[in-house]
Structure formats: structure tokens, C-alpha cells
Amino acid sequence: MKLKLILLALLVSNFCQVNAQQKNRTENVILITFDGLRWQEVFNGADSSFMKQQVYLKDPKLKEKYWRDDLMERRKALLPFFWNTIATQGQLHGNRDMGSKVNVTNNQLFSYPGYNEILTGSADNDRINSNDKIYNPNTTVLEFLNSQPAFKGKVAAFSSWDVFPYIINDKRSGVYVSTGVEEVKGTSLTEAEKMMNKMILNLPNPLGEVRLDAFTFYYGLEYLKKNKPRVLYLAFDETDDFAHGGEYGAYLNSANYTDKFISELWAYLQSDTKYKNKTTLIITSDHGRGTTAEEWKSHGQKIPVADQIWMAVMGPDTPAIGEIKNDEQLYQNQIASTMGALLGVEYKNARKPGAVMSTVIKK
Ligand SMILES: [Zn+2]
Questions:
Q1: How many CB atoms lie within 10 A of CB 304?
Q2: Is 180 within 8 Å of 162 (Cβ atoms)?
């Protein structure tokens, strides 16, 4: 009798726990990264001094497209979805001019260490300190989720940079990772996928091994429509590549195209009952860059301010407080735990991920 009571009590407490974890409305999470897009452009729009540097640029309409004397209008011209939609329905963190700070905690300040920190919730300076194609010994939140019955086979990543299969450790994790300049394969390709497959091998690619972001996005969108994953990661790359090349105009254009991709994605999500009002977007970058006319092109340990990043979140559990205009400090290592918490799962690994960001989840 006593045993039965104890069992009943255990069942009830278990039920309550599950219930407590399921109170969020988020059932799906889409993580999006812009490689090395600075917070300065996100919050201040195009920088006129860098634009002047680029007068020789091929794009004569650059100033017309992105320059406005008014800061609010200027940043809206560069990232209209951020400033029309996320600023009114979500949250934008990282405007240091207002006191809102987001930093990475790794001391490397380049891509693999940044993506490792985003996806695993902790820096690993001893082992993750190059961009080499080395399978990640750490377990990402994508792998963690994919190991849970409710998410098994419903976690996917589309990346422009071909190091992501290693960062996500697709071999071990079983997470589907699409990358590289190659055709997507499958038995039930959509018309759009067939067309992209024809184009991807027959277009000049200025980025070499890196897939152009438009392919990453539209392949990812087709996959989303077909397979309805619960967790999707879209990792864009062009902003970083063009910045390294000193192509400020191309860097701005790429940020602007990606903003349009996110707008198109959001419109689709809100039109599909599987996703509508049940999906949270988390958007961020792997690292920042320098601040001077020369140093904006680069990042890494020689440029300590490259630890400054930004973050945008929008979804049914996230209070619509827009641009954060007060003192706060968030870290890149909090993203993985927050993705888990939004989905009602406590993300754990051996390296103690950063804390859940309470500001992005309604009490
Ligand atoms: Zn870079």
C-alpha cells in the first residue's frame, strides 16, 4: 500500500515536471547565423566612412540603397525585417551604445570556436582553436536534441561554409547537414530543388568551396516545407568572406539579402499550421570584427573587440520588448541552453553550458 502511494506520488511529480517543461508555446526553433556581421551595422546601418573607402566599388547605387542621414532610417534600409518586424515583435540585443552587450566567451574570436560556443554552450579554447575540418569532440545542442525521441530525425542544418559537417559532427550526431557546392540528392526532389541543382554546378562562384547563401537558404526552405523539422539551423557565410576581401558594398548587400531571406522564411512559417505561432527564431553571429577602416575587415585574437556580437530573438514565448536600451550582459554560450529551454528540454553536456537567457522567455 505504502509503495503504491509512493509510486503514485512519483507519477504525479513526474507529470508536473513534464507539464512545467511544456508550458512554452514554442514547438520549433530556427537558429540563423550571419558570419561575422558586426553589431555596428545591425544597430547603426551602413558606416559612411567605410562606404567612402569603397567609392571605386562596382555598385554605384550603394549610397542610394543604404545611406540615410537619420540613423533609424539608415538601419532600416539595411535590415528592413529586423527593424520593421523583429523590433516590434521580438528582441534585439547588443547595441552597446545603449548599454546592451553580447559577447563571446571563447578567446579565439573566429568561426569554428564561435560556432562551437553557440552550439555547445561553452568555449573550448584547448581543443577548438582552428578552422580545420576536425570532427567536434563536443556534443552540440543539435545532437543532444536529435538523441531525444521527440526530435529524432527532426533536426537539420544548412550551411554555406563546408566546415559545418565537422562542427556538428554529422557522422556521430546523425543530424542532417547540407553544405558545399554540390547538388542535393534524394528521391522526391521538388521542382525548385531540381532547378537549383542545375544552377549550382553551372554558375561562377566567387567564394570557391563556400556555397552561396541563396543556395543555402532556398535548399533549406525546400527542406523545411517537405520535411517539417522541429529544429533547423541556417548558417550563412557571405558577410565574412566579403569583409575579408574589403568589399564593404558586397558585405552590406549580403546582410541585406539575408534579411530578405529571413523575411521570406517568417512569412512561410506564419502560413503553415505546423509552425505558426509555435516557432522561435534566434539570430546571431559567430564573432564581431574590428572598428577602424582597416580592422573592420578582420577579426581574431589581434582584434580583441571582435568578441562583441549581437542577438535577435522572436517567437511566441519571447516578450516583444524590441531593441534593448538598458544595461545588460548576455553571452554567446547561453544560446544552446536557451534553445533547449524554449523547446521544454534541459540541455546538458559535460562542459556546463551557459545559463538560459531568462529575458527571452516569458515568465
Ligand atoms: Zn572570418
A1: 13
A2: yes
Kindly report whether the global pTM for this prediction surpasses the value 0.90.
yes
Return the pLDDT at 363.
83
Ligand 1 center from residue 132 Cα (angstroms) = 13
Ligand 1 centroid – CA 242 distance (Å): 9
pLDDT in tens, 96-133: 999 999 999 999 999 999 999 999 999 999 999 999 99
Distance of alpha carbon 299 from alpha carbon 345, whole angstroms: 34
How far apart are the CA of 24 and the centre of ligand 1, in A? 36
With CA atoms as reference, report the closest residue to 145 among 29, 52, 258. Answer: 29
Span from the CA of 310 to the centroid of ligand 1 (angstroms): 16
Q: Which of 24, 42, 81 is nearest to 308 (CA)?
A: 42
Give dist(CA 275, CA 29) in Å, integer: 9
| CA atoms of 33 and 282, how far apart (whole Å) | 8
Angle at alpha carbon of residue 206, lines to 241 and 161, rounded to 5°: 50
Amino acid letter at 281? Answer: L
**pLDDT of 9:** 58
Give the dihedral of Cα atoms 335, 338, 344, 350; nearest 10 deg.
60
The alpha carbon of 259 and the centre of ligand 1 are apart by a number of angstroms equal to: 20
